[in-house]
Structure formats: structure tokens, C-alpha cells
Specification:
- It is a single chain.
- By secondary structure, the protein is an alpha/beta fold.
- The chain folds into two domains: 29-88 and 243-455, Aminopeptidase (3-Layer(aba) Sandwich), CATH 3.40.630; 103-228, Glucose Oxidase, domain 1 (3-Layer(bba) Sandwich).
- Helices cover 34% and strands 25% of the residues.
- It has eleven helices and 13 strands.
- It has helices at 2-36, 40-51, 59-74, 133-143, 165-172, 213-224, 278-298, 319-326, 355-365, 397-401, 437-455; strands spanning 78-100, 109-110, 122-128, 146-153, 177-182, 207-212, 230-253, 258-268, 304-311, 335-340, 347-353, 378-381, 409-412.
- Strands 1, 2, 3, 4, 5, 6, 7, 8, 9 and 10 form a ten-stranded mixed beta sheet that branches. The protein has a three-stranded mixed beta sheet with strand order 12-11-13.
- Helix 1 packs across helix 7 (278-298), helix 1 packs antiparallel against helix 11 and helix 7 crosses helix 11 (437-455).
- The protein is elongated, with a radius of gyration of 26 Å.
Length: 469
């Protein structure tokens, strides 16, 4: 009996040793791949430059969804495609240009998604919006074929023509479009109020232009001084019959011991299209996908299932992640943690957790500081907070509203690239050249190590102290 017990203890110890060795081997392989064969920027290049801006309802988003699913399959992951919703009319953007006819000066501007383009190059004189009906009656004859300067400042969203009597009158009088002053860089969103109500029978008919404030002010001053100014715009905004469906793409690395417990890593694929959506959130998606590739190619066999969630419709109201949570795609109580990446192209240098998670994360993150001395890594402590009542910010929102932990990696511009995310967020600067390759490549490796570590714990992360009433 004693010999049998000793034999069982020896086997258990040997099994534990083999398990640790296998885990260490996987971590070593991850680090080798992540430092010598990192594909983060290749993924980013394809998303941002080959496909481009990806609003809901666009051919670009449909193409991106298919490409992401194909990449996951090529790396050996299971793929789940979730139909989240549909939009009645599709929108696709072609090139746009404008100039001051008098001087030939090119114009710097943008137009919100789901707003009208021109009928080829359209030239017209410029007028200032009338202040009241009496002024409109005096000038309505000049509204036909005119570009109308508005007094209001642009916040990037489309004008609500339906809610403005004056704008409707100017449209009926034959105005070509409306121009608002826009701060630099130019921020461009979408027709938030009406994009899901547009049909092929009630498409927008006049342009909604957000113009560089410096050019706007110069043009306004000349028109105010009764100088004749002519502008020409050629804006290729195209609509296509719908409905157009949009989808979450989930890459799944199935757990070997606890397949019905989950670690989730999320980022959103949809973007605005005044630029190419490289930072918001092409960088997050690239980091997320490269983490999946590194784990798949390393031969990782995590105990828990890891889901790489490429969400849709984040910019239109967190639609994809909300759908995942509300449909109870997986049991929420079985999610160890949801990691979200959506923000600047900065580098992962920390994680901040409550006391109950601290020892687990210290152990998980132990290999990270030695990877690159330029990028230290720290596990920090924090106090818990209340469960949020409203979903806002990014795709973590509906997870935390339902009590799921959403610890995310802390990001930092540690080398001082003088990066300002607010200058890129939803603007015409959201381009590939704004990404910082060394930051994103390192972050993908760190993300993979942390995901693997959480998935390989013998227990779900403790939620004690994460939320406090």
C-alpha cells in the first residue's frame, strides 16, 4: 500500500513536472516566434492599406470579415461567424476632391459616411446661410446652384436636414450642398441619426462638407465682403441596394482541459473611412490576430478555450460585442477575463488588477520583462469599483455591465514618440504611418503570453474585489 502511494505521488510529481516543462516550452516558442517572425505589421498593412476604411454597410468591411476568417482558418483555429445585424443600404466611398475655382487652390475637407456625393464635378458660387426667413426671402434666388456656408462648427457628424426648416428650404431652392468649418485634423463620423433608416427611395441628395477651418474662414471673409467665390467639388459617395449584413468573426483555440471555460481577447474591425482605420482599430485587430497566429503556430494547448473576437459595429454603438453578450454566446460566469484593445498604437507595459488576481498575474507575466529591455512590464494593484450601469467607451462595456472582469493591458508611449491619440481618433490622420511597429509587435507577443497564462491556470481568475457595490 505504501509502495503504491509512493508510486502515485511520484507519477503526480512527474506529471506536474512535464506540465510545467510543456508550458515553459510553449512560452519559449512564443517568444522566439514573436521576436523573429512577427507578422503584426503585415496584418495591419492588409487591413489598412489593401482593404482600407471599413464602415458598417461597406464592401470593405465585408471583404475584411472574409479575410479575417480565412486567416484564422489558415492558422488552424476554429471559426465562428455571428450575424449581428443588417443595414438597409450599403455605402462605399470613392475618391473626393475640391478646389477654389478663382485661384485653383485645392480644398482640404471630408464628408460623413452615408451622405451624398456630387454628380461628377459640380461647380457653384458661395453664399452664407440666411439668419431668418426674411433674409432667406431676399436671397433665395441666389441659392440655386450654390454652396452654402453654415455658421455652426462641425463635430464630424452629418447634418440633420430633416430637422432644420432652413436647410430644407435651401435644398428646395436648389442648393448644391452645405459647408461647415472643421477643426484640424478633420474629424469625420457618419449620419448617426439616419444611416439605419435610409432606403434606396430616400437617399440624401445634397452634399454635407466639413472644410478645413482656415480655408473656411478665408472663403467666408471674401463672401461677407461681397466678393464672388466659386468652388468645385467632385465627391464619389456611392450607395448600393441592401440589406447589407455585418458579422463578428471569432477565432477559437479550443481548451484541452476546460473547453467550456473561456479567455477572450477582443478588438473591432469596423472603422470610419475618411482615412483607413489603421489606428482605430486596425492596430487592435492586428495585435489580436497576431496573438492568435503566434499561439497557433507555437503549438499551444491551453487548458481553457481562448476566443479571439473581431467585433463589428463598434463605431455604431458597440453592436458586435453587445450581441455576443446578450446572446449568451458563452456562459458569462465561465469567462475568466475579457481583454480589450482599442486605442492608440502604444506598447503593453503593465496590467492593473485587484488583490485576488495579483499573484496569478505576477506568475503569468514573469517572462515578459526579459523579452526586451526597452519595454519593462509591471503588475499593479487597484481597488475594485461598482458594476457600470451603461455601456460606453469600447467593446468591454457590455461585459463589465454583466459582471465579467475586463482587465486589459496598460499601454504606454514609453519611448516618447509624441503620439497624440486624440489627433487621430476618427480623423483624416488615422493612417498606417501613424502606427508604431515596435510597439504593436511587442504588444502582440505580450498579449499572447498573457492569454496563454490565464487560460492555463488551474482555476478561473477570482472575481473577489473586482466589483464593489
Amino acid at each position: 500500500m505504501k509502495k503504491s502511494l509512493k508510486y502515485l505521488i511520484l507519477l503526480a510529481a512527474l506529471g506536474f513536472s512535464l506540465s510545467v516543462t510543456a508550458q515553459d516550452k510553449t512560452i519559449r516558442k512564443l517568444i522566439e516566434l514573436g521576436t523573429t517572425d512577427n507578422k503584426t505589421m503585415e496584418i495591419e498593412d492588409f487591413i489598412a492599406n489593401r482593404i482600407g476604411g471599413r464602415p458598417v454597410g461597406s464592401h470593405a468591411l465585408e471583404d475584411a470579415e472574409r479575410w479575417v476568417a480565412d486567416q484564422f482558418r489558415s492558422w488552424g483555429l476554429e471559426v465562428m461567424v455571428q450575424e449581428v445585424g443588417e443595414i438597409p443600404v450599403g455605402f462605399n466611398r470613392g475618391p473626393w476632391s475640391g478646389r477654389i475655382v478663382n485661384s485653383g487652390e485645392p480644398l482640404h475637407f471630408g464628408t460623413p459616411t452615408y451622405t451624398s456625393g456630387t454628380k461628377g464635378p459640380q461647380r457653384g458660387h458661395v453664399v452664407i446661410v440666411p439668419k431668418d426667413d426674411r433674409e432667406f426671402d431676399r436671397m433665395k434666388g441666389t441659392a440655386k446652384g450654390a454652396w452654402v456656408l453654415l455658421e455652426s462648427k462641425s463635430r464630424g457628424f452629418a447634418l440633420s436636414f430633416r430637422d432644420s426648416v432652413m436647410l430644407s428650404k435651401l435644398i428646395d431652392a436648389g442648393a448644391l450642398g452645405f459647408i461647415q468649418s472643421a477643426e484640424l485634423p478633420i474629424q469625420i463620423h457618419y449620419d448617426r441619426a439616419h444611416c439605419f433608416d435610409i432606403t434606396m427611395d430616400n437617399l440624401p441628395t445634397v452634399c454635407d462638407i466639413k472644410l478645413d477651418k482656415n480655408q473656411f474662414e478665408a472663403i467666408y471673409a471674401k463672401v461677407k465682403a461681397r466678393e464672388r467665390v466659386e468652388l468645385e467639388f467632385d465627391i464619389r459617395n456611392h450607395f448600393s441596394p441592401g440589406p447589407v449584413k455585418f458579422h463578428n468573426i471569432l477565432g477559437i483555440l479550443r481548451g484541452s482541459k476546460y473547453p467550456k471555460e473561456y479567455v477572450i481577447s477582443g478588438s473591432h474591425l469596423d472603422s470610419y473611412d475618411v482615412a483607413c482605420g489603421a489606428v482605430d482599430d486596425g492596430q487592435g485587430t492586428s495585435v489580436n490576430m497576431e496573438s492568435a497566429r503566434l499561439l497557433a503556430l507555437s503549438g499551444a494547448k491551453p487548458k481553457r478555450t481562448i476566443i479571439f473576437s473581431i467585433w463589428t459595429g463598434e463605431e455604431y454603438g458597440l453592436l458586435g460585442s453587445k450581441y455576443f453578450v446578450e446572446q449568451k454566446t458563452v456562459p458569462l460566469e465561465k469567462i475568466s477575463n475579457y481583454f480589450n484593445r482599442d486605442g492608440g498604437p502604444t506598447v503593453a507595459t503593465s496590467v492593473t488588477v485587484p488583490q485576488a488576481m495579483y499573484d496569478d498575474f505576477v506568475k503569468i507575466c514573469e517572462p515578459i520583462p526579459a523579452i526586451n529591455p526597452d519595454f519593462p512590464f509591471e503588475v499593479r494593484l487597484r481597488e475594485g469599483g461598482p458594476v457600470p450601469k451603461k455601456g460606453r467607451g469600447s467593446d468591454h462595456a457590455h461585459f463589465v455591465m454583466n459582471g465579467v472582469p475586463a482587465v486589459s493591458l496598460g499601454l504606454q508611449d514609453i519611448k516618447g514618440y509624441d503620439f497624440n491619440y486624440r489627433e487621430i481618433w476618427h480623423t483624416d490622420l488615422d493612417r498606417y504611418d501613424k502606427c508604431i511597429p515596435e510597439y504593436l509587435e511587442h504588444s502582440a507577443l505580450v498579449n499572447a503570453i498573457v492569454l496563454y497564462g490565464v487560460a492555463n491556470l488551474d482555476h478561473l481568475l477570482s472575481r473577489d474585489g473586482y466589483y464593489i457595490e
